[in-house]
Amino acid sequence: MSASGEPRNGAGGVAGRTYPPVNFLVEADRAAEFARSIGADPAAGVPPTFAAVYSLGVTAPQLFGDDEAAVDFARLLHAEQEFTWARHPEPGETVTSQARVASDVSRRGMRFLSFETDTKDEAGEPLCRSRALFVIRP
Amino acid sequence: MSVESAVRDSALSERSVSFTKEQIAAYAQASGDINPIHLDDEFARSVGLPGVIAHGMLQMGLVGVVAAEAAGGPDKLTRLYCRFAGMVVPGDTVTFTAEPAGPGKLHLRAVNQKGEAVLTKSSADFKS
Question: How close B10 comes to chain A (CA, Å)?
């Protein structure tokens, strides 16, 4: 790894790094506000893509705030996103999300970082897996 | 936010959304993603963008609503995948569509008023 923290071509960067788990309380009002912002019916429950908040939303800042990961936020593109759900959370539940850098490679100056977050419920059962592909431009 | 629903033959569910700065700001507030590229035109231009742009995750939220409709309800969605292909700026109108792609599978599209794809290779799985 170079002094700036950016991986050399093909090198591992911060691949394999795991961040501390983060708890998040799924609040009814917050979920309803989110539903309205995407044109979903607030009465239909917590929208699936509220995972943008309880999963990616609480863990991505750990990556962006990690000096060693040296992710240049200004050059970052969110290229792909996948959520897989065992179920969706109910209002009032506390969920726990934990993220890791699944891969971190550079090709021709572009850095491809795959960021995965696993979210579990209070019983420790898997609820959601998020997989984000971040592309950091030179 | 202006949202119109229409169902066509090939699509199980479709919505057209005309984007505004206010809607983008509402999503920023609701999601907690307050990156100034979504809120401040001057900042957005300073990093090479035409002005504020909509969050990719807002596109995903909107297509997710369409997918949920096609799946028979949000609880039925088990997977949602989006590849963010194009920028969306205030004034753009994007049509989000879910089409059947086999049992329990949907192909998702998002196309702007110029016919450009905003999302590509996007899909959802659902349980029956």
Answer: 22
Q: What is the pLDDT of residues A7-60, one digit of tens each?
A: 444 446 899 999 999 999 999 999 999 999 999 999 999 999 999 999 999 999
Among positive and negative, which fits the CA dihedral B39, B40, B41, B46?
A: negative
Pair of tokens at residue A87: 């179920």
pTM of the model: 0.91
Which of A38, A41, A112 is best to mutate for the B interface (most B CBs within 10 A)?
Answer: A38
Q: Measured between beta carbons, which residues in chain A are less than 8 angstroms from residue B80?
A: 48-49, 82-83
What is residue A72's predicted lDDT score, i.e. its pLDDT? Answer: 87
Q: Is A131 left (phi over 0), alpha (psi -120 to 50) or beta?
A: beta
Residue A99 CA: distances (Å) to CA of A60, A104, A128, B125: 8, 14, 12, 23
Residues with Cβ within 8 Å of A104's Cβ and at least 6 positions away in sequence, in order, are: A7, A12, A13, A14, A15, A111, A112, A113, A114
Q: Residue B71 has what DSSP assignment?
A: H
| Band of pLDDT at residue A73, cut at 50, 70 and 90 | confident
Q: Rounded CA gap, A85 and B70, in Å?
A: 17
**Residues B94-107 pLDDT 10s:** 999 999 999 999 99
Cα B111 → chain centroid: 9
